[in-house]
């Protein structure tokens, strides 16, 4: 049965390394017969969470920006892919801000499979342990959601250099397994 897959690319660079992994994952997931939509956070208008707390009672954010549209897509998806370049051993600020803004919605996000796509200049996969922990902490706040896979795209500093590694193929085959 075809699944609905939402890929969220947090790369600030179009066709940056993590964005390219998203494309590879998407190709694999589509080849397997799934419906796939990719969203680039760099194309959206959204603000930082202000910590006002009003969403705790209303389950709506006081900001009227693009986050609500993406949250609705997350709620409708069977599979969610979160992708980030790794900066200083952590996910980029765009993805962290996005996750913080899920506060009004996180209690509704349930029964989903999650995949993570990371890229870093460092050649050691352990350089992504903090980022993996950040994603697992987010997942721990959700109901019945599962981590299904992770690509640790090492050795990718210059834009596009990920293509010279085995990681795009890894992301592709991960996408075919959705």
Account of the protein in words:
The protein is an alpha/beta fold and 178 residues long. It has a single domain (4-176), classed as Flavodoxin domain (Rossmann fold). Helices cover 33% and strands 21% of the residues. The mean pLDDT is 96.
Offer a few descriptive terms.
globular, 33% helix, alpha/beta, six-stranded mixed β-sheet, 178 residues, 6 helices, Rossmann fold
Distance between the termini: 10 Å
Q: What is the alpha-carbon Rg in Å?
A: 15 Å
CATH architecture label? 3-Layer(aba) Sandwich
In the predicted model, the low-confidence regions spanning at least 5 consecutive residues are none
Number of strands: 6
What is the total domain count?
1
Offer a concise description of the structure:
The protein has helices at residues 17-31, 55-58, 67-76, 93-100, 129-140, 167-176, and strands at 4-9, 35-40, 79-87, 90-91, 113-119, 146-153. It is of the alpha/beta class and 178 residues long. The protein has one domain: Flavodoxin domain (Rossmann fold, 3-Layer(aba) Sandwich).
């Amino acid at each position: 049965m075809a699944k609905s897959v939402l890929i969220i690319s947090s790369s600030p660079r179009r066709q940056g390394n993590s964005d390219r992994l998203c494309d590879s994952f998407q190709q694999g997931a589509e080849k397997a017969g799934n419906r796939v939509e990719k969203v680039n956070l760099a194309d959206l208008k959204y603000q930082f969470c202000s910590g006002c707390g009003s969403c705790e009672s209303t389950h709506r954010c006081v900001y009227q920006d693009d986050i609500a549209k993406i949250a609705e897509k997350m709620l409708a998806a069977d599979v969610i892919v979160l992708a980030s370049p790794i900066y200083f051993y952590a996910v980029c600020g765009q993805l962290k801000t996005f996750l913080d803004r899920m506060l009004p919605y996180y209690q509704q996000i349930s029964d989903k499979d999650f995949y993570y796509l990371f890229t870093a200049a460092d050649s050691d996969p352990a350089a992504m342990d903090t980022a993996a922990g950040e994603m697992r902490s987010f997942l721990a706040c959700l109901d019945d959601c599962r981590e299904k896979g992770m690509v640790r795209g090492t050795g990718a500093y210059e834009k596009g250099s990920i293509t010279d590694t085995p990681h795009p193929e890894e992301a592709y085959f991960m996408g075919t397994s959705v």
